[in-house]
Amino acid sequence: MKIQRGLLMVLCSAVALCGCSHLPDNKDVLFQTSTISALLEGAYDGEVTCKELKKHGDFGIGTFDALDGEMLALEGKVYQIRADGKAYCAEDSLSTPFAAVKFFEADKTIVPDTSLNFKELEECLDRLLPTKNILYALKVEGVFKYIKTRSVPKQRKPYPRLVEVVKNQPTFEFPNIRGTIVGFRLPAYVDGINVPGYHLHFITEDRSAGGHLLECSTSNVTIEVDYTRAFFVVLPEHGDFYQVDMTEKKEGELERVEK
Amino acid sequence: MKIQRGLLMVLCSAVALCGCSHLPDNKDVLFQTSTISALLEGAYDGEVTCKELKKHGDFGIGTFDALDGEMLALEGKVYQIRADGKAYCAEDSLSTPFAAVKFFEADKTIVPDTSLNFKELEECLDRLLPTKNILYALKVEGVFKYIKTRSVPKQRKPYPRLVEVVKNQPTFEFPNIRGTIVGFRLPAYVDGINVPGYHLHFITEDRSAGGHLLECSTSNVTIEVDYTRAFFVVLPEHGDFYQVDMTEKKEGELERVEK
To answer: What is the CATH architecture assignment of A6-103+231-257?
Structure first.
């Protein structure tokens, strides 16, 4: 009886969340754990497991407990691209201190007729997207003339700040490679919570390698864009999240970390 | 059959949202429509109705379509405090361009043993709350020696920017009054999305008047705090939201608007 009532309450909440004419359904929500501000300050303790994350999306990016590699989620699988540049299937029990995922459904498809480097890819999308004020999930799939990525090495406590970690980041180059770029374009106002602008990761078609995207040159690709009008942020309950100082904006640090 | 499958999918989504050990349940989520950046730029077109809003919370603050007054939601009722300082029951069909609500459940209760002005109330809470890095819903109920509020007058298109509107805001004083302060303390990193720090509205015990809180002096009050670790932001699909320029931070504008 109690369980039935519980299920009914859950059902009512879900209907409340989905049944509103102007609100996107549950599938069209970017789900995020923690904030980029906390990650910049060294809050690398994992809180949400990959198993949990997959309930909120089949597509996205992030990192892992102790900053052990770059995360890329694609078609419901979560990959861990470690400091050796290789991609591993992430165990369901592995946890993340920072990740953003959603269920990917393309609203727009673009097939560029010329080769695009990273900057040109950004400019091309900026021209074609309807507004800079909503969130976009981005998938760029096909053949690339060149890809350059980086990954982050696993850290030990006491954790250094992120800007220190990326000073010694290993980078990887992939000439003439098939694969998929996965990530987001987010509005300026998410600053502090997530990365404004473009934040992209890459994985090879055979799912063997990849990383955080630093440079690219497309050859024959299809760009898919998923327009997203809602985001759901869950803050950590444990680890360093309650302690770190996120009140001060560290100008330029995010750019140094993400580029 | 189709409806049954639809309900089942909704149920599964809800279980996914609620059934995770580290994630707060649906009731402990701050629900927000639009962003403070958009409101600062004059995006005052209502999108979410009060009826929809009440599905996401029984407690909160905001404003109304065309900036027609201050919103205060308390115990499941939504009040509209218009430019005459009077509180009206908001119709379910009335819509809002910006509001934040949640289901209020106190995690901490404080009974101050001295009178507190606004600044002292903030300092008292800052000392007692466990971290500056999560969200708090705040309810201060009882007798006040003094309350000063303001409200905003309904605007006409083309809408002026918010900083222009508040230059001529009507203010209201309430000596020796019973009532309730309703609002939030939000972390620094929500800047651009909502108001960092304290943002409070007031309504009298007889629900006849109130407004955006400018000054207070407590006499005999109980403070209740609801610790909140998740927020859900839904962005408008219509009106000016897609057009306004939210890329530039206008230093000091938010302070001028909110104080």
So the answer is: 2-Layer Sandwich (3.30)
